[in-house]
Amino acid sequence: MSMRIFVPRDSTALALGADAVATAIALEAARRQLDVVIVRNGTRGMLFLEPLVEVDTPAGRIGFGQVDSSDVASLFDAGFHLGQSDHALALGLVENLPYLARQQRLTFARAGITDPLSLLDYEAHDGYRGLRRALAMTPADIVATVTASGLRGRGGAAFPTGIKWNTVLRAPGVQKYIVCNADEGDSGTFADRIVMEADPFMLIEGMTIAGLAVGATRGYIYVRSEYPHAIAMLDAAIVQAELHGFLGANVLGSGRAFHLEVRKGAGAYICGEETALLESLEGKRGIVRAKPPLPALSGLFGQPTVINNVLSLAAVPLILDKGAQFYQDFGMGRSRGTLPVQLAGNIKHGGLIELAFGVSLRDILYEFGGGSASGRPIKAVQVGGPLGAYLPESEWDTPLDYEAFAALWAVLGHGGIVVHDDAADMAKLARYAMEFCAIESCGKCTPCRIGSTRGVEVIDNIRNGGGITQVILLHDLCDTMLHGSLCAMGGMTPYPVLSALNHFPQDFGQAATAPRAA
Amino acid sequence: MRDTTPAGQVGAILAARPAGQDQLLPVLHAIQDALGFVPPETVPQIALSFNLSRAEVHGVLTFYHHFRSTPPARHVVQLCRAESCQSMGADALLSHAERALGCSLHGHSANGNFALEPVYCLGQCATSPAMMIDGAVHARVSPARFDRIISTLAEPA
């Protein structure tokens, strides 16, 4: 019997040499005349271990972490292909690694286990059960199930998904659309990418169910151009799904149609904002639209449109399969289900950690993350992407929950956490937040377009010893941006800026004072 | 015979496209994939095909950072400048890259072989800092690793 060896094709694994490892294993196996099958799986999300090579054994899959192509010969010498795990890189049974064993994998249950492009694998691991159930339900029942699950939009705004779907279901329209926002531009986030690269059929299934729920027959996945691997994976998965009747004019013989297409972004961060994304899909500049009208009523091409983040749509197949209550049973308060935390930056064990809402930041940083990569004390963590607040150590016991973060004048956003050690200059990071806003602003509203540029100047003045008048000016400017911007780009750039200033005034050359909000 | 001039290639892409203005980004991507950039002189041709003004096409083309209006260097080195990579030494890596390639960010190396560009997140944030060269992603890029990767490319910096 041939031995199965798994070498991930996730882009992080590839960025660390996984292709060379796979080639080396194939060559070495041929040289030793061994019958080895190499499966290119997705990532388990333990990105710090990539390339994580796994060997199938009767007891389970044994892992070998951070494998370099130069390690391959010694791995064979040590009998890794026979399931022996006394090589220095051996980790033992992957399922038993605490990093993985402590997680609650719902959305990422298949990630890294299956071959992302194998429909057989997907169906063998509960794939397409949700869609089959949905096909037997009325649209209103599907929407009611999603509503009852408590799922809230995972893109950052946390709007209840079922309510959005219900609006689209009830809206009159000749051609409704499902749009997936896969423009994952926030630094410190990669959960969408992992869904697309490790389990693309789950997203396709979720969008198909959304289509059935609201009566939409067309869907688009808008993926950023910085994600070429994800785009290739989705394109290949869509072809497979069409070939086997999961997409197309007659989904699984139901007589209902759902057509799906990938559209590639072009390097504009603002297109992660839903209305700018719709403009971009229509072939225009990614300029933010004023709301109302809501996209649910007048979205893509002026038609009723469900626009959801990858993770929101990816949660749907499981909710339909296991029921609303199953999902609802995870989480705390009004934050139901699981949050895929993305731990990044200056951290020893960075990766994807899917847990029910409610775990503390400190647990994530130390129990999972193992502290900073540099070994220096952690100074600040930015949660929720470039528009999220910096949190000092005094706030790390906050549970990961939308409302708890809002109470701190912070955001949970998409669940990305970027860690900075004590070498970080918070004034420089605040300046960067303004600079980034200036680079990426769509230019439609003045507070964002002009405010960001003035913000860079004012922070420069403060750093050059401008004193309290400049600090007051920065507060005023942030106040204008917060309340006067059309969307979150300008409206939330003050979060990183003011949180840095309030919590780390010494980095701005200011005496520590009582923190104040905007 | 196939017309291999830029205008000819753009014409072929436009002739093959589905109807609708929503095809503008896919068309611009196809042109850039084929030619390496979107030549400004082809803008009127694109505008005509979409029944748009030249200004509208120019507006779209220049809004998106991804599209170029000039031919790219042989190798395009994109360094991630976002927060996660900053926390893992992206600034030091940029200084190193600027020295190694002999150009500053947004610039070209003297022999024109390399362009150095910023990029804002490649989704490799758990293994920062990251960069992309000619579409291939690299993670945990130390200055030494940067030099090794550059040295595997045929052209000298």
Output the number of helix runs of chain A. 21
Q: Largest sheet of chain B at a glance? A: 4 strands, mixed
Question: Which ranges of chain A are low-confidence, i.e. pLDDT below 50, for 5 or more consecutive residues?
Answer: none
Structural class of chain B: alpha+beta
The percentage of residues in β strands of chain A lies in: 15-25%
The CATH class name of the largest domain in chain B reads: Alpha Beta
Query: Helical amount among residues of chain A, as a percent range?
Result: 25-40%
List its salient traits.
heterodimer; A: 518 residues; alpha/beta; Glutaredoxin; Ubiquitin-like (UB roll); five-stranded mixed β-sheet; B: alpha+beta; Arc Repressor Mutant, subunit A; 2 domains; 7 helices; 4 strands; 11% strand; elongated
Describe what you observe in this structure.
The complex is a heterodimer of chains A (518) and B (157). Helices cover 40% and strands 16% of the residues of chain A. Chain A has 518 residues and is of the alpha/beta class. Chain A folds into four domains: 3-101, Glutaredoxin (3-Layer(aba) Sandwich), CATH 3.40.30.10; 119-328, NADH-ubiquinone oxidoreductase 51kDa subunit (Rossmann fold); 331-421, Ubiquitin-like (UB roll) (Roll); 426-508, NADH-ubiquinone oxidoreductase 51kDa subunit, iron-sulphur binding domain (de novo design (two linked rop proteins)), CATH 1.20.1440. Chain A has a five-stranded mixed sheet, with helices on one face. In chain A, helix 17 runs antiparallel to helix 18. Chain A starts with a strand and ends in a 15-residue tail after the last helix. The model of chain A has no long low-confidence stretch (mean pLDDT 96). Chain B is of the alpha+beta class and 157 residues long. Chain B folds into two domains: 6-63, Orthogonal Bundle (Arc Repressor Mutant, subunit A), CATH 1.10.10; 75-151, Glutaredoxin. Helices cover 42% and strands 11% of the residues of chain B. Chain B has seven helices and four strands. Chain B has helices at 6-16, 24-35, 43-50, 54-63, 83-86, 90-101, 143-151, and strands spanning 75-80, 114-119, 131-133, 136-138. Chain B has a four-stranded mixed sheet with strand order 2-1-3-4, covered by helices on one side. In chain B, helix 1 (6-16) runs antiparallel to helix 2 (24-35) and helix 3 (43-50) packs across helix 4 (54-63). Chain B is elongated, with a radius of gyration of 18 Å. The model of chain B has no long low-confidence stretch (mean pLDDT 95). Classes of the chains: A alpha/beta (518), B alpha+beta (157). The interface between A and B is large, with 59 and 43 residues.
